[in-house]
Amino acid sequence: MGAVKSKSIAVGGLLTGLTLLCLFLATVMPTNRLSLYALSSFPTAVIVLEYGIKRGWVFYGASSLLALILIPNKLAVVPFVVFFGIYGAVKYHIERIRNIYIEYAIKLVYFNIWLGVALVMVREFFLDGNTQLAKFPLWVLVVALEVIFVIYDYVYTLFIQYYNTKLKKMLKI
Q: 98 by DSSP, 3-state: which?
């Protein structure tokens, strides 16, 4: 029993380190930030798959807290804390419905709620009243981001499948 607990703590520590590395790189790299945020979200899925949803939530909380403590650019950690870090656990809960149409409807509602919050925050805190959010209509931006989200969710699913079929055996977790 002790060896199993030690192994789960070690795996959690390594995955937290990987998450923090991705987040740190997202704060210092001039490009590929969105990809690094997406990568930072995958370890949550591994914890959920290996140790259950309760530990997945604990992993998310610990990773978020450590990111806010250790990463100097606190604003750059916000996308992880409010969306990417939590998505593995949210995806787990939504996909227990086992109806792809309802699942995607709920996922899109979840995404659009956070997108709406983000757009309001950007408008209120980072733009003055005379600045437009984009050079093109807002609905175009929203639709484009929804498409990107669906691709992200699909890639997340592919990662979970790859982990279950190949990576898990290679890592012997």
A: coil
Identity of the residue numbered 5: K
From CA 157, how far away is CA 58, in angstroms rounded? 21
**pTM attached to this predicted model:** 0.88
CA angle 82, 159, 157 (to 5 degrees): 70
75 token code pair: 């604003």
Distance CA 46, CA 51 (A): 8
State the chain's mean pLDDT as an integer.
91
Residues 95-121 as b/e (b if ≥16 CB within 10 A, e otherwise) read beeeeeeebeebbeebbeeebeeeeee
Q: Which of 96, 121, 112, 169 is nearest to 145 (CA)?
A: 112
Nearest C-alpha neighbor of 71 from the set 57, 58, 85: 85
**pLDDT above 60 (res 131):** no
Rounded Cα distance between 80 and 109, Å, is 18
